[in-house]
Write a structure and sequence with these properties.
Rossmann fold, TIM Barrel, about 525 residues, Arc Repressor Mutant, subunit A, 3 domains, 7-stranded mixed sheet, 6-stranded parallel sheet, alpha/beta
Length: about 525
């Protein structure tokens, strides 16, 4: 059986890692005996015609897509295009959005044959051999589908107890050179499960409240493989990496024992860290930790069942400073009962902590407690346009706040940061920037360059060139610079850098040169 898995478009501005979930799904499909291909539209342009060419080339039996709420519509439309071109292909979709909106998904998109609910690997390994036999679907837990106009949900699948029994994610199926050029960290997980009950989060519902852990040795094995492939930075994407301090210590000790030198970050709660835990994380290379503090108002924290205190946040930040680790805080705007004073409390607390922080607007995703029990809260959801569920614009209101009030608050909160940044860019343009400011401004420009290159397939479209006297890199740089409206010297710096690092390569085709993204490092095979 051949299986094509689609990673739908996702905003590059949201700093995506190589998609981890779809790599676990791909590994499960391979373990079930399938030949698998990942079609990644996160770091390449999507068009139906391009998709259809790939389908004709691969001729899959099953096409699946995974998504979160933000890119659900894109993923569903792609599966619709698949069905249009390949009527006999079986289509399936998974991920947190469809897990909690399966009936609506299948009703609105009849081109999708089935939805996998929750943790996907076990369900997939059972379903793939029966994908062409719909009568057998009734006996497979974790599925939803329509039969004779009746919605069928087979009940929740059993969570995977032994995570070490899972094959390592099939990252070799991704266009990894593009992700390396993009420059964001690659993600791993060391556990699944979340014991907390925050009303705005899906973690507990998707992967269970009981945390399941991977063996620290297996975690370190995966880290070694990632580092050998050329990635330089890792993000531990567990819902709560610091849920068990003894296990955090065991993982860090294994990293230290193997002398693995790399920078990494993790998500934590302020009530699950202390100076001793953070110190060994720092010794093992962790240089940044992110805390979801959400609000500077104690009543608000209680209302959303965060179950942390402001003093715990203060202590966690102090401990980070003592061990030399960057602390980042995330605050939400638009939580139930939000008003001008509670927003001001968050602003004042962020200023008191004096650490890197950001504000996100509440997005009440399908399956969250706040959405399922909206009548219990001082909150009104204003749209079900899933494309707006990016936490960058307000899509709710409370009895005391309209969306424009929330937007105005965030704009004020960021005003000094934006002003400082504009001053840095002005000094850079005038040639008066410090070396650090120059690095910061040029880093932003580098991101704009790679975003443009990836989102419009510029290497694929513009990389076939006549042989030039000043070399292949210079010729490509001029061509790309003319498309992105940047200086050829600036573009050339990164084209040469990506070539030297092995992300970009070229070969001679008669009298011309063909540039391309270099295939996966053999270490991942």
């Amino acid at each position: 059986m051949k299986v094509a898995l689609i990673a739908p478009p996702y905003p590059l501005e949201e700093a995506p890692s190589p998609p981890l979930g779809i790599c676990y799904v791909a590994a499960a499909c391979e373990a079930a005996g399938a030949e698998v291909r990942i079609i990644d539209y996160i770091v390449s342009e999507y068009t139906p015609e391009k998709l259809w060419r790939l389908l004709d080339e691969f001729a899959p039996d099953v096409v699946g897509a995974t998504s979160v709420t933000l890119n659900f519509l894109a993923g569903a439309e792609i599966l619709k295009a698949v069905r249009q071109h390949c009527p006999s292909v079986v289509t399936v979709m998974g991920g947190p959005h469809v897990s909690f909106d399966a009936k609506n998904t299948l009703t609105r998109y009849p081109e999708i044959d089935a939805v996998i609910i929750g943790e996907a690997e076990n369900t997939l390994m059972q379903w793939l051999p029966a994908a062409k036999n719909r009568a057998a679907w009734h006996d497979i837990k974790g599925l939803a589908f329509f039969e004779n106009e009746e919605f069928i949900a087979t009940g929740p699948g059993e969570l995977i107890r032994d995570l070490d029994a899972l094959p390592l994610p099939s990252r070799h199926l991704l266009p990894l050179s593009k992700y390396k050029a993009l420059g964001f960290p690659i993600s791993i997980i060391t556990s699944r499960g979340c014991p907390n009950k925050c009303i705005f989060c899906l973690g507990r519902k998707m992967v269970g409240f009981k945390v399941r852990y991977r063996n620290p040795v297996r975690v370190a094995d995966e880290i070694e493989m990632i580092l050998a492939s050329g990635f330089e930075r890792i993000n531990i994407a567990d819902d709560l990496f610091t849920a068990n301090k003894r296990r955090v210590k065991a993982i860090c000790e294994e990293i230290i024992r193997r002398n693995l030198n790399f920078g990494w970050s993790a998500f934590a709660r302020v009530d699950t860290v202390d100076e001793e835990t953070l110190a060994i994380m720092r010794k093992a290379g962790c240089d940044a930790v992110s805390f979801g503090i959400e609000s500077g108002n104690p009543e608000m924290l209680a209302r959303v069942r965060k179950k942390i205190t402001l003093d715990q946040a203060r202590e966690a930040v102090t401990a980070c400073r003592k061990v030399g680790m960057i602390a980042h805080a995330s605050f939400m705007v638009g939580l139930p009962g939000e008003n001008h004073q509670t927003m001001q409390d968050s602003f004042d607390f962020a200023r008191e902590l004096d650490i890197e922080h950001g504000y996100h607007f509440l997005s009440p995703f399908p399956g969250t407690t706040v959405r399922d029990h909206i009548d219990d809260y001082d909150l009104q959801i204003l749209t079900d346009d899933w494309n707006r569920y990016d936490a960058n614009t307000p899509i709710v209101e409370t009895s005391q706040l309209k969306p424009e009030d929330m937007t105005a608050f965030v704009n004020r909160a960021y005003q000094s940061i934006i002003q400082t940044w504009e001053e840095k860019k002005k000094r850079y343009a005038e040639g008066n920037a410090t070396s650090r400011e120059t690095l910061e401004v040029e880093s932003e420009q580098r991101l704009k360059l790679i975003y443009h290159i990836l989102s419009t397939d510029l290497i694929e479209e513009e990389g076939f060139l006549d042989v030039s006297g000043d070399g292949p890199a210079a010729a490509l740089s001029r061509r790309i610079a003319s498309k992105v409206d940047m200086a050829p010297d600036f573009v050339g710096r990164y084209i040469r850098q990506w070539h030297e690092k092995g992300y970009l390569g070229f070969f001679y085709d008669n009298e011309r040169i063909k540039w391309e993204w270099v295939p996966v490092h053999p270490q991942f095979n």
